[in-house]
Amino acid sequence: MKTLLVLEGGNHDTRQLRGLLAEQGYRVSALRECCWPLENESQLLSRDAGTLLVPRPVGSFRSSLDGKLLGINRAGAEIHGYGTPEQMMEEVNRVGLAKALYARPERRQELVDEVLESEDWQLYEERFRRRDGTLVHCLFHLRAVRDGDGRPVELEGFIEDISARKAVERALQFTQFTIDNTNDQAFWMTEDHCFFYVNEAACRSLGYSREELMGISLYDIDPDATKKLLSDDWRRLREQGSSILERRHRAKDGRIYPVEIRANLVVFEGREYNCAFATDISERKKTEEQVRASLLEKEVLLREIHHRVKNNLQVVSSLLYLQSQKLADPELKNHFLESQSRICSMALAHEQLYQSKNLSEVSLKSYVESLVSQLRQVFQMAGQQIDCRTEIDAVALDIAKVIPCGLLITELLSNAYRHAFADGRNGAIRIAIEERENKLLLTVADDGIGLPAGFDYRQTATLGMQLVRALCNQLNGVIEVENQRGTLFRVTFSP
Prior knowledge:
Blueprint: E1 3-5, H1 14-23, H2 41-46, E2 51-53, E3 59-64, E4 69-72, H3 74-79, H4 85-95, H5 97-101, H6 106-116, E5 122-129, E6 135-146, E7 152-161, H7 163-180, E8 185-189, E9 195-198, H8 200-206, H9 210-214, H10 218-221, H11 227-240, E10 242-250, E11 256-268, E12 271-280, H12 282-324, H13 330-355, E13 361-363, H14 364-379, E14 386-392, E15 396-398, H15 399-420, E16 427-436, E17 439-446, H16 463-474, E18 478-482, E19 487-493
Parallel strand pairs: 14-16
Antiparallel strand pairs: 1-2, 3-4, 3-7, 5-6, 6-7, 8-9, 8-12, 10-11, 11-12, 13-15, 16-17, 17-19, 18-19
Helix pairs in contact: 12-13, 13-14, 13-15, 14-15, 15-16
């Protein structure tokens, strides 16, 4: 590979320039005048015009035919890991050039034999040993220096460290091998959405040859592509560096299939590229559609189950009501009424559930407001004015906790109607559910006559209080009772 340094203008002192470049470790192959600009690069190279330089500081050296280092410049010493040319010559000549510098000492004689058979420069890529024992990959120019009779007397050469370039080449080869052997479709695209590179998987999926794909653009394979859509994709890619999106691809035969694209922004030689990998997700989409259909079928079935449970509970409630109408004992009749209310609270939970968008959870606010409205109609006496207020946070509970929570509210609210205002007085009842530090606080408070002196809910044997304790345990809750200016029950439990 040659690098061209072109000096514009005229009247340059070429001998001074040649000496200056040599001192800095550059090898001057030719120093000639030429007309500029030339028509094209191939003309410039074919005419060997301009100043031809190796692209980096190059080591220059001389050696004897039998393997003694006769001279080397600073760049050559640094390539081999030595501090100065003098240090390198002293240490190398102590053990011999072949053994000190060559990865395979026998390789030097092979090169010498080849060089002696030619009058021209020979170019090799070789690995040489550095002072610390590590190996360095070098571009190696070598030729024989001959006397007036044409006999070889010594060797001269130039050496350039190309380790970084070889590392890049290996990385690129590995990357290309990986991309070409992946099952995903790989596309390198320029900002104008033309293909810079495609792999074999992309060709197979789309039904195009590599040459055909390289001649078209993303607009030709994406049926949904618009200028705005693709511009937005590039803007997002620049902002984030990578993105994942779903698109559709259209094959050469017109078949359209969904793909998931993982796009990555790559900057190479000052230009931006979109290195994208596309995966055909037709099977995944088909599976997702089947799952959605199955879930919809199960959702319809669950809604029907909750609807039928609600209807059956309402039938039981109606039967209890009809039976209670035949009872003469007011206390016994009241027991039927309480049982009917409990069943109604459960029926209401199932009604809320099958009407909900989410079949696993019920909105407490909607459920409690409906439940309180229903209980007010059952327990409030004619002509009695009781202000029953609800303050419910926007919280959702699953059915396993909604039903015991509803039954608990039913028991506490029916007790308030029947005992706090038993003498027909007017008043107020407050039902609140608030969320605090991942806990729910259920409060049922009234301003009625209060609890009897010495009342202990833990020791009371009435069915209502037994149910309250049992439901509180079912919720893993803690109950508190206050008896000041009325009665307050507070239950704290986890949602």
